[in-house]
Amino acid sequence: MAGLSERSERVRETWVDTKLATLIVGSLGVLLVATLLQVSFGAYPLTLSEAWHTVFDGQVLFSEAVWRAFLLGDDIPAWLSRQQLIVWNIRLPRILVGILVGANLAVSGAIFQVVTQNELASPYILGVSDGAGLVVLLALTMFTGLLPFLPILAALGGAGAFLLVYIIAWKDGTNPVRLVLAGVIVGTVFGSLQRALFFFIDNLGVAMSAQMWLSGSLLGTDWEQIRIALPFTVLAVLLALLVTRQLDVLLLGEETAKSLGMPVERVRFFVAAIAILSTAAAIAVAGLIGFVGLIVPHMVRNIVGSNSKRLLIGCLFVGPALLVGADVGARLALSPVQLPVGIISGLVGGPYFLYLMRKKEQLGEI
């Protein structure tokens, strides 16, 4: 019986890994199609074949000078053709920012759901996004000298919001319902403060830019945004993958985790800090994009299960595919008018949230 049980477990693990691999391949396929569509359309149109050959041009892909120019801000090599410049310097950065933002929001949402033991948790619903957004909006409109420190400022704002949520929800401990309600309260207050800031903005251009940022948009992003978000994204993802064992223990419940010797509160806040850093990296370059951190972890969990490592790896692929795909829809749906991707994610995420409410008998706990 023991041997049969072990073989069954190995088969189950293999099946889960196969499902994860299938999820990754499918996400990469969606991302590839979205990339080619995004690159093809514009004032300088390309065929899908031209887009493919330009994106995967080995002369550019393997050029140290090109990557130094894009990632370090050096001069762009003069030998790049007009088509290569349009694709690599204008259109691809928008896709790469979408990849970073989608991965960050999905990973942070997965972490928050585990930390709070609440499947309704996400950076947006817990007020973290609004806290980070308020600080970033202040920098965009009133303290422009602080713009180089946007990810750090966003992290501080998100951390302050999450701490406030925890304080409000705490009453001899917390529970899923109180955390969500506290998050809604904090998010509503910070959202109101964001809207109030517009009454103090005299410059119409600044007001329009801030409004676009609040809607969550990848329009106008370039390699500067990639240089801002990439280091924080890499750090947050690496840290998240290093604490998957602690996340699995937290899934067992607070009492079980304490009985295993885990300092639960200390671990919970450290892991939450990773999620806040990940959220901040996304908000600093793309604004407030809701629902990605809520729906992607659910989609991945339904396919690969609750194992934290598989969940986070799945989120790293599904999040970018979903967000870049949504951005293509935002760009092409009402062309030549380009909608902010945050509007599309809200239109998709809202119905999914309602579907989740109708489907789950015990909504709130993982």
TrEMBL record:
Its main location: membrane. It is found in: Cell membrane. The keyword Mitochondrion does not apply. CDD domains: TM_ABC_iron-siderophores_like (cd06550). Transmembrane segments: none annotated. It is a multi-pass membrane protein. One of its GO terms (molecular function) is transmembrane transporter activity. Keywords: Cell membrane, Membrane, Transmembrane, Transmembrane helix, Transport. One of its GO terms (cellular component) is plasma membrane. InterPro entries: ABC_BtuC-like (IPR037294), ABC_transptr_permease_BtuC (IPR000522). Pfam families: FecCD. It comes from the Archaea. Belongs to the binding-protein-dependent transport system permease family. FecCD subfamily. Required for corrinoid utilization. Probably part of the ABC transporter complex BtuCDF involved in cobalamin (vitamin B12) import. Probably involved in the translocation of the substrate across the membrane. The complex is composed of two ATP-binding proteins (BtuD), two transmembrane proteins (BtuC) and a solute-binding protein (BtuF). This is Cobalamin import system permease protein BtuC. The lineage of its organism: Archaea, Methanobacteriati, Methanobacteriota, Stenosarchaea group, Halobacteria.
